[in-house]
């Protein structure tokens, strides 16, 4: 009998930071990709509200609902044997009060079976982080460019420049003090991200924040070359989109040409 892989737990994240082992995170929105990434050794799978613009066709992350995200998170959790599964709480499900955040997070944990939730913001959401942590719900923070605040921030703009760097550091420390198990840093100047990483005891996970963070995260479609466009900070580690397109073209050609299905695909008795 094959021994199941050891599940990545919250304490493993801090151990990785202490030993200088880089952590890996990718988004996932369904069971097949979750299984593939889990088998590849990815430490954390993020069921991001990025499913709104990457999977559901919206212009940004704001429209996706908790009701839409729970089934996706459930599928990812079922597909991951090793990875720690983190799910975003979408816009409008946690900002109003700690109680609202608690109700949303409990639904995500109970109905989807994820291991942690992620929420955006610094000191303004520390009461939410504290209540969730005290309730047994691990929380990942998110600073820098926070997509749910895109309209306030004036679009997809780098955060933490100049005087704003000190505020970002203060927010990171506040999240840690409230109980956050890790902090995502998105579109932050590399020197600022390095400073935040040095002052925190919990891991930082960078996306467009340089190489000095304790780990990295990418939207899997950007990582795999599935889209027509990807941000500057993303590297395409494969061309899955091109391969899938060619497979579909070959299927169409063989069906219309009468060569599929062939004898080897046919039941004769």
From TrEMBL:
Active site: 186
Function: Catalyzes the reversible reaction in which hydroxymethyl group from 5,10-methylenetetrahydrofolate is transferred onto alpha-ketoisovalerate to form ketopantoate.
InterPro entries with a match to the protein in the record: Pantoate_hydroxy_MeTrfase, Pyrv/PenolPyrv_kinase-like_dom, Pyrv_kinase-like_dom_sf
Keyword line: Cytoplasm, Magnesium, Metal-binding, Pantothenate biosynthesis, Transferase
Keyword check for Metal-binding: yes
EC number(s) on file: 2.1.2.11
Protein's name according to its UniProt entry: 3-methyl-2-oxobutanoate hydroxymethyltransferase
Chain positions recorded as 3-methyl-2-oxobutanoate binding sites: 49-50, 88, 118
Details of cofactor binding: Binds 1 Mg(2+) ion per subunit.
The protein's assembly and partners: Homodecamer; pentamer of dimers.
Cofactor: Mg(2+)
Family: Belongs to the PanB family.
Subcellular location per the Swiss-Prot or TrEMBL entry: Cytoplasm
Binding-site positions, Mg(2+): 49, 88, 120
Metabolic or biological pathway, per its Swiss-Prot or TrEMBL entry: Cofactor biosynthesis; (R)-pantothenate biosynthesis; (R)-pantoate from 3-methyl-2-oxobutanoate: step 1/2
Reaction catalysed by this enzyme: (6R)-5,10-methylene-5,6,7,8-tetrahydrofolate + 3-methyl-2-oxobutanoate + H2O = 2-dehydropantoate + (6S)-5,6,7,8-tetrahydrofolate
